[in-house]
Amino acid sequence: MTALQIPADYEAWRQGRWEEIAGANGKAKVVANAKITDPGPHTLPDIPGEWRTTAAGDLTVTAKAADGVQPAAWSTERTPFPPAAP
Fold first, then answer.
1. Could you give the count of Cα atoms lying within 13 Å of 18 in the half-sphere of its Cβ?
2. CA neighbours within 13 Å on the CB side: how many for 62?
């Protein structure tokens, strides 16, 4: 069996994408570190919204546009994100 060969252009794209997301100035950053241990609501310093847990243990947030929060890629309807499996 031979080792899997990854095309160089794909590997370059993958490395660039990793830097874009996780690099020093990447999009993914830790902005708060908190432990939510009961249903809430909880507020976190410098983080908009009220954070709660459901009976199933899911973490939810309710935030207002006045707090500077704008949904980007999902519906503003009350739909679980990511959408539940059918």
1. 6
2. 8
What does pTM read for this prediction? 0.47
Element (H, E) at 51: strand 47-53
Strand order, beta sheet including 42-44: 42-44, 47-53, 59-62
pLDDT digits (tens, 9 = 90+) for 26-68: 777 767 778 888 888 998 888 888 888 888 888 888 888 888 7
Contacts with 30 (C-beta within 8 Å, 6 or more apart), sequence order: none
Q: How far is CA 33 from CA 5, 18, 75, 79, in A?
A: 39, 22, 27, 26
